[in-house]
Amino acid sequence: MENNKSAVKILVVDDVEVNLIILEEIIKNMGYEAITAMSVKDAFEVMQEQQVLPQIILSDISMPDIDGFTFCSMLKKDPYTRDIPVIFISAMDSVADLNQGFALGAVDYITKPFDKGEVEVRINTHLKIYSLQKDLEENNKRLNKVVIKQMEKLRLEQKNIMAALAKLVESKENSVSGNSSTHYANVSYNSRILAQGMQFSPVFEETITDDFIDTIESSAGLHDIGKIMIPDYILLKNAPLTAEEHRIMSTHAEIGAKTIMDIYDGIEKNDFINMAIDIAYFHHENWDGTGYPKGLKGAQIPLSARIVKVVDVFDALMNKRAYKQAYSLEESLACMQEGTGTFFDPDIMQVFMKIYRNFKGVV
Fold first, then answer.
1. 31 in helix, strand or coil?
2. At what angle do helices 210-219 and 183-198 cross, to 10 degrees?
3. Is 72 exposed, middle or buried (0-12, 13-18, 19+ CB in 10 A)?
4. Would you say residue 311 lies in a domain?
5. CA-CA distance, 57 to 310, in Å (whole number)?
6. How far apart are CA 5 and CA 140, in angstroms?
């Protein structure tokens, strides 16, 4: 500040011209730029004309029309001016006046007649405090940006870890079925397409936002991440599962949700994490309540999981698995329609039947 005193602007507001002259002279001798106004109205006009706000405002208390107390209150209510230090100048020095001024947000008080040394000390003191506060705010902003950047980097790294685990499961299953590795990409992309279509349905238009669509595309591919913990003799079995094997396979929903929670342990939850957990946990719930792991019914099932269930089952029907051949499009659609109202949300299925041709994997 010492090297750039001329850039410091100090606004003085007083309806007595001689007071303005005295304070202007003191401020100029200190090396700062003095801006003067004889009323609150003039003060606001002057501030609007200036490209830079004043670093300090000296305001008289007793002024016609709008007094100094009201002026201070107006400044503190405006986010644009609330941080500017206000020093009151007045012949009044009662405790009540002092308390009222400080309660309104003033930082100091100068009494008339002015003492040059006192004015200089008070101005310099509050300029230094103001400068330190601004430096601290800037440092906090820079630090916050660094922290946010590091957190985003960490989230991306963890997201990539989960995606890699999900793709690992898929590649193991494909090694037996002979499929190319497309299910992860198909479920992610097709969940986005289905959610976009649902935006135009009166049932979902207020629920499905652009953020929801972006999030479900990132989260949907993690639906089967829990299969990483399912034994290969079950996961890769080239035949129907026994009742016990099916029970073990069913645990992948809870395992998947717990895996995501463990990976993100200690990190503040966001929409991506919360949705990924919901999808992993509940994408095998059925609309009629006969699914697993919780037996949720209807709208109890998170919307994201209901969407992914439709997309996941359709893609599984359309592609070869270790335990089955690929169904034709007509056969797949017939199965999907048969499951409407039992496995699948009827309102989501209405949208699905209109837009399925836009899905990846549909020729």
1. coil
2. 160
3. buried
4. yes
5. 64
6. 25
- Residue 175 included in any domain: yes
CA distance 313 to 329: 13
From CA 213, how far away is CA 194, in angstroms rounded? 9
Quick one: how many helices (H) and strands (E) in the chain?
A: 14, 5
Interior angle at CA 16, CA 14 and CA 19, nearest 5? 75
Looking at 16-55, which runs of residues are DSSP E strands? 33-37
Residue 173 has pLDDT above 70, yes or no: no
Total domains in the fold of the chain: 2
- Residue-averaged pLDDT of the chain: 88
Confidence band for 162, pLDDT divided at 50, 70 and 90: confident
Please say if the pLDDT value at position 3 is more than 70.
no
CB 60 within 8 A of CB 16: yes
Residues of 95-122 as b/e, b for ≥16 C-beta within 10 angstroms? eebbeebeebbbbbbbeeeeeeeebeeb
- CATH code of residue 49: 3.40.50.2300
Question: 96, 114, 132 — which closes off a domain?
Answer: 114
Max CA distance (Å), the chain: 100
pTM: 0.62
Read off the amino acid at residue 176: V
**C-beta of residue 37 within 8 angstroms of C-beta of residue 89:** no
Question: 2-7: which pairs have CB atoms within 8 A and are 24 or more residues apart?
Answer: 5/30, 5/31, 5/32, 6/31, 6/32, 6/33, 7/33, 7/52
Q: Which DSSP letter does residue 324 get?
A: B
Dist CA 219 CA 281 (whole Å):
12
322: helix, coil or strand?
A: coil
Segment 35-50 mean pLDDT: 91
- Report d(CA 231, CA 228) in Å as an integer: 8
Q: Label residues 42-60 b or e (16+ Cβ within 10 Å = b).
A: ebbebbeeeeeebbbbbbb
Q: Which residue has the tokens 């034709």?
A: 328
**Tens digit of pLDDT for each residue in 174-222?**
655 555 558 888 999 999 999 999 999 999 999 999 999 999 998 998 9
180 & 277 share domain: yes
